[in-house]
Specification:
single chain, mainly alpha, about 85% helix
């Protein structure tokens, strides 16, 4: 099939690394957008970081919703390639892009109109809330760029071309790193400058994807970006993508309530710790997610081709690699949490509070790696429901656990322990669930 890589033959380890490294790089780049904004805005004070952090959770929800088409493309297009059906690959690609535009416009309009009541959920000071509303309204107009870039990334990952999203996203990040200080400090736009820098960079990334597929490297002999939706393809994309989008959206909603709880027990420092700490934790999450996405793309092709032994081989290889990285992240967060946090927010009260969060959260790193690895295996075989059930159940438990631990006298640390313990449970249950279904899925 034109422009794609055949993942059903050759070295499993080499192919996983070749897929995973660019995907990890792309994930880090996407994470770096928020961290870059937060690092520059951090020079304006912890109140500004709290405002951008509040919006960051809503941006997370946006990215989560865009997973419907990212995962939908990775699995539907990947399985079409594995089955050597080029027509289906083209149609699934077109449908994913069309659905991405429809969803992004509706979601962006919703947050733009209701920005004020949404931000009011955090119970922040009036000036912090005002800045957050302005920031949210600016970035919400750029949501179509986020959704389309996510779908473009999924299509390239399915085709074994994960290096393309890496290069394109890297170019966008470099632009964002230049525009952030320019807009924030030189132009004097403050937080609004950070929002506009991200908007311009995301638009540029989307334009590069269009240029790549239309001019430099068409896939599947070329395909239209937008098409009239047909029931067969639309239904399959939603079957694959909705569970993933829902679990990630709910995770973000739960974090809104966790952020409110953190604000209740720790003020704006507590909210800042949760949001900035989550960005730092994403170092581990994005690494394991890179291997998980590579595993999903690899499994999708081999599962459709009936090569079950390669599926198991890829799973075992991925698990070994994520375990090693999980141990390293645990050591870093537990013993050097304050130092790491100070790189984002240099205020002493802030990075000392952040060090406590990272130490407690660090104990769950291995289990988080296990959960995300199992997600990739489930997704590649088309079984996207089990990871959704696990995530929804144990992420929801975080809210009563946080209130219980805080009421027991643990204060803000109780919120952090609720996050850490629920992550441990998710990893354990995901592993057990797959072992129970392994014979049914793989024969």
């Amino acid at each position: 099939m034109q422009g794609t890589k055949n993942l059903t033959q050759g070295s499993i380890t080499r192919q996983l690394f070749n897929l995973a490294l660019p995907i990890m790089g792309t994930s880090f780049i996407q994470m770096a957008y928020s961290i870059t904004d937060m690092a520059w805005v951090g020079r304006l004070g912890s109140e500004a970081v709290a405002a951008i952090g509040a919006v960051g959770i809503l941006t997370w929800m946006t990215t989560s919703l865009s997973y419907l088409n990212k995962v939908g493309a990775e699995v539907s297009v990947g399985q079409s390639i594995g089955a050597r059906n080029e027509e289906d690959a083209r149609n699934f690609a077109s449908h994913n892009l069309t659905i991405a535009v429809i969803l992004s416009v509706c979601w962006g309009a919703l947050l733009f109109v209701f920005a004020t009541p949404v931000i009011a959920v955090y119970k922040l000071q009036a000036d912090i809330s005002g800045n957050a509303v302005q920031y949210l309204r600016i970035i919400s107009t750029g949501f179509p760029f986020i959704f389309l870039a996510s779908a473009f990334t999924g299509i390239h990952n399915a085709a074994g071309k994960s290096n393309i999203p890496f290069y394109i996203s890297g170019t966008g990040l470099l632009m964002n790193m230049v525009l952030d200080p320019l807009f924030i400090f030189v132009f004097g736009w403050g937080m609004a400058g950070a929002a506009w820098a991200t908007w311009v960079s995301e638009a540029f990334v989307c334009g590069l994807f269009v240029y790549q597929l239309k001019v430099r490297g068409p896939l599947f002999g070329g395909f239209v970006f937008f098409t009239r939706l047909r029931k067969r393809y639309t239904r399959r994309i939603f079957q694959l993508g909705v569970p993933v989008a829902v679990l990630n959206m709910l995770f973000a909603v739960i974090n809104i309530f966790m952020a409110r709880t953190a604000s209740l027990y720790g003020g704006h420092i507590g909210l800042m710790t949760l949001t900035a700490g989550g960005q730092i934790e994403a170092i581990a999450w994005n690494t394991s997610q890179g291997f998980s996405t590579a595993l999903s793309a690899f499994v999708a092709q081999n599962y459709a081709a009936g090569k079950k032994e390669r599926v198991l081989g890829a799973y075992h290889t991925t698990l070994k690699m994520t375990t090693v990285f999980g141990v390293l992240c645990t050591l870093l967060f537990v013993f050097y949490g304050s130092e790491v946090f100070s790189l984002i927010v240099p205020e002493r009260a802030a990075f000392e509070a952040g060090g406590v969060f990272l130490r407690i959260d660090g104990y769950s790193m291995l289990f988080m790696m296990l959960e995300i690895t199992m997600q990739g295996l489930f997704y590649g075989t088309g079984h996207t429901v089990p990871p959704a059930v696990i995530s929804i159940l144990f992420n929801t438990l975080r809210i009563p656990m946080a209130f219980l631990f805080a009421a027991m006298g643990m204060g803000i640390a109780g919120v952090w322990w609720a996050i850490s313990l629920s992550s441990m449970l998710k990893g354990i249950v995901a592993f057990v669930w797959f072992r129970v279904l392994q014979r049914k899925i793989l024969g």
